[in-house]
Amino acid sequence: MNKAELVASIAEKSNLTKKDAESALNAFMEVVEETLASGDKVQLVGFGTFEVRDRKAREGRNPRNPEEVIQIPASKAPVFKAGKGLKEAVNK
After folding, report:
1. Are 16 and 8 in contact (CB under 8 A)?
2. How far apart are CA 70 and CA 85, in angstroms?
3. Domain co-membership, 46 together with 18
4. Does the keyword DNA-binding apply (predicted)?
5. How many structural domains compose the chain?
6. Is 24 within 8 Å of 13 (Cβ atoms)?
7. How far apart are CA 85 and CA 4, in angstroms?
8. Which range of residues forms the domain containing residue 7?
9. pLDDT tens track, the chain, 92 positions
10. What is the CATH number of the domain that holds 54?
11. Same domain, 65 and 49
12. Angle at Cα 10 formed by Cα 79 and Cα 50, nearest 5°?
C-alpha cells in the first residue's frame, strides 16, 4: 500500500474527504518525526511504539572492494515496535 492508497482508505473509513485524510496523515507523520527528533518516543497502546535507537560505530566492508575495511560512524535509527494488538491482528 502506498501513501495515496492509505489516504483513500483513511478517507473511506473515517468519512473524511481525501484532502482532509491526507492532511491528517501528513500531520501525524510530522508530529512523529518532530517527537523522534527531539529524543522522545510515540507510544500508541495496542498498536505500537515509535522510538529512536543509537547505533554504535562499527567496521564494514566496501561493497565495491570487499578487501577494503571502512569505518561506519555511530548514528541514530528510527524503530517501530509492534504492540500486542497489532501482533495479534497480523497473526490471525
Report:
1. no
2. 41
3. no
4. yes
5. 2
6. no
7. 25
8. 1-40
9. 999 999 999 999 999 999 999 999 999 999 999 999 999 999 999 999 999 999 999 999 999 999 999 999 999 999 999 999 999 999 98
10. 4.10.520.10
11. yes
12. 15
